[in-house]
Amino acid sequence: MRTVAVLGGGIGGLAASYYLCKSPQVTKVILLEAGSRVGGWLWSTRRSDGAVFEHGPRGIRPAGAVGRNTLNMVEDLGLAGEILPVTYSHDASKNRYLYVNKQLHRMPSGISGLIRTIPPFSRPLLFSIATEMFAKKSQREDESIHSFVSRRLGRELADIAVDSLCRGVFAGDCRKLSVRSCFPTLYEAEQRRGSLTLGMLLGSGTSKAVPPGPLSRRSEKESWAQWSLRRGLESLPESISDFLQQSRRVLLHRDTPVSHISPSARGWTIHVKDGSISADHVISALPAKALAAALPSSCQPLVQPLQDISCVTVAVVNLEYEGSVLPVQGFGHLVPSCEDPGLLGVVYDSVPFPQHNTPDGPTTRLTVMMGGAWFQEAFGTPASVTKEQLLERATEAMRCHLGVMAAPRWSWVSLQKDCIPQYTEGHFGRVDFMRRFVKKNSLSLSLIGSSYDGVSVNDVIFSARTAVEELLGSGL
């Protein structure tokens, strides 16, 4: 393996290049990014007064094999001293809210939260858990998250809690999203144990083997629920980019969109605006539809399943207020679609990460997320909506939801177009078909990124590692 081309300079493409650099089998890596910056949706604004605002992911979970894997990378990159951990005992971990019937409701937690009826729910959660044990196992290969949860835990939890959760994680509609692909642990628990409760207690499958490094062991010892970095999460792709350039084995090309790729005797020819590049193997971290547009006619069977993986647009509005304006302390609140389709949720950024506040007096930082699967319904097309309209909608929500009557002292509106892939029913089968087609036709092509195996930062990084290990046949 002499040359590997990586398409896309988001966190997936950067991670793939990082893992390729770890192997002596690869002579050269060519990383192609269409835009002027790398890092994709990991995007932080650092103001001159020290305040940090996230326009994409703002916290990463350390749990599980994929969480350990990311922490091992962070440690290798020399970022351990930049970590901002949030423990499970922190208010941001214990207190999460739903906005239902024009009121904030703290999500039930602990034993009392299980045995008492806590609004907005009409019965104790323990009742749903007890009856779940006797629900019949589905014989279907896949179903929507709403259908799955309604069948096992009841319609109310599906309509309120799970609907809100899917809007917060995927900006998507739980009535269309796949339980098998979005929440594989729940699907496997039912398939292997016949019950979510038994699956959670006994385990429902084999876990991926990732040995914990010192930073990961520290996260377990200190009970981290999530973490960020002192200069924002964009520090992670920036550090990977620095690592790649110092390796002298990676050629990083910004402002270099890929028009199409074609097979060659050597592997692939990648066509860009100023010519072409030859590579033995291509790792695509492009969005599914972008890859579909670049494939040659010989790969036509891949085009339709790639095009079937749609994405949603999310408006992200960062707000900063003078003083402490929150009526509650917690991670934030989510809004079910029945309450307000256009408004997905609000993150109280100052609570988990006060280190990102300006040191010049007390302030409150909030992030309002809007649109997603309901963007068109709430705002029209992304091209027609203005930033002024989105800012007005966000500040009005803060008045209604949190009673914040003052105008923000600072704001930033980002329109993140097609930022979150939607794993609708049948997604698992589509991805399986594509990978079988690649293998059957001996294509020197790997598919990684948020379009396939999980939308979280951890999932995307781990998919890059998995692809490199499959390519080179060695552990990393």
Question: Can you describe what's shown?
Answer:
By secondary structure, this protein is α/β, with parallel strands linked by helices. It contains 18 helices and 19 strands. It has helices at residues 11-21, 64-76, 91-94, 110-115, 125-132, 145-153, 155-170, 179-182, 184-193, 196-202, 214-221, 235-247, 288-294, 300-307, 375-379, 387-402, 427-440, 457-472, and strands spanning 3-7, 28-32, 44-46, 52-54, 83-87, 96-100, 103-106, 224-229, 250-253, 258-263, 268-272, 275-279, 281-284, 311-322, 332-334, 343-347, 363-372, 410-421, 445-447. It has a 7-stranded mixed sheet. Strands 9-2-1-13-19 form a 5-stranded parallel sheet. Strand 15 and strand 16 form a beta hairpin. Helix 1 (11-21) packs parallel to helix 12 (235-247). The radius of gyration is 23 Å and the shape is globular.
Query: What level of helicity do the residues show?
Result: 25-40%
Radius of gyration: 23 Å
Physical arrangement of strands within the biggest beta sheet: 7-6-15-16-17-14-18
Estimate what percentage of residues fall within beta strands. Answer: 15-25%
- Count of DSSP E strands? 19
* Distance between the ends: 16 Å
Cα shape: globular
Mean pLDDT metric:
94
Contiguous runs where pLDDT drops below 50 for at least 5 residues: none
Count of helical stretches:
18
Overall SS class: alpha/beta
Largest sheet: 7 strands, mixed
